[in-house]
Specification:
By secondary structure, the chain is mostly beta strands. It has one helix and 15 strands, in the order αβββββββββββββββ. Helices cover 9% and strands 30% of the residues. The longest helix has 23 residues, at 4-26.
Length: 246
């Protein structure tokens, strides 16, 4: 009879070979190589990965965006380093392109010295597909209603934590979004879902979004749509905005 150790060793080898065969059968090509960007830090924005659709970065201006009210270019402020800023009173802006399932990266900052008082003074929002808002708010040492704080799917899902940095420091959102699914007749089969990672902390975990959030920019069923940034009359700064379609 073979020694027990030989039997066990043979079983392990057979198991490993079987696993390799299964992986090879299900994945005939290696994944594409992506050069990661630099991570954003409190004192400076990061950079985009090599395969991302860059919506705001050094030298881009607001070319990927337009006014939401018409097709005219965005009138928001932007410098050569790709630091953009809401120009209060000039209205919301939206991307020219539309996205469905995607990874959205947004870095934002409340200007140093800016006073935040509940919903006033430090407010904006990222509207995924123009319908589903992730709230932007200077929530450092600033209380407000739970569904309206930073990282909320606005008035639907309260964030799991508040990792917001103080005014003058950069915050980062990574939004992993799954668009709604429809049948051939336009009936919704599955609702949209979204995960939000806020300064490296998961604050929304595959949250099921129950239709457009309050004050949504667009209505009606859709499998893809533009991103919107909100002019809430506060000079919120933005940088390193990019999307990776999934």
């Amino acid at each position: 009879m073979p020694h027990l150790k030989q039997v066990l060793a043979g079983s392990i080898v057979v198991g490993l070979l079987s696993s390799v065969a299964l992986v090879t059968a299900g994945q005939e090509e290696l994944p594409p190589v992506v050069t990661p960007g630099l991570p954003g830090l409190p004192d400076r924005p990061g950079t985009a990965p090599s395969d991302a659709v860059v919506l705001l970065g050094p030298g881009t201006g607001w070319k990927a965006w337009r006014r939401s009210a018409d097709t005219e270019p965005s009138e928001w402020i932007v410098d050569a380093d790709g630091i953009g800023q809401v120009k209060p009173g000039k209205g919301n802006i939206r991307t020219r392109d539309e996205f469905g399932d995607c990874h959205i990266h947004v870095e934002w900052q409340v200007p140093e010295g800016r006073e935040c008082n509940g919903q006033s003074g430090c407010n904006s929002g990222v509207y995924v597909m123009g319908r589903y808002e992730v709230q932007i708010l200077g929530a450092f040492d600033n209380d407000t209603y739970p569904g309206g704080t930073a990282g909320a799917w606005y008035n639907q899902h309260v964030p799991l934590a508040n990792p917001c940095r103080p005014p003058g420091e950069w915050n980062t959102y990574d939004i992993i979004f799954r668009a709604p699914r429809f049948d051939a007749n336009g009936k919704q089969l599955e609702p949209p879902m979204g995960t939000v990672i806020f300064n490296g902390v998961v604050v929304q975990n595959n949250a099921i979004i129950k239709g457009p959030t309050g004050s949504s920019m667009l209505k009606g069923p859709a499998s893809k749509g533009p991103l919107f940034l909100q002019d809430h009359s506060d000079p919120i700064r933005f940088a390193n905005i990019w999307v990776r379609p999934l």
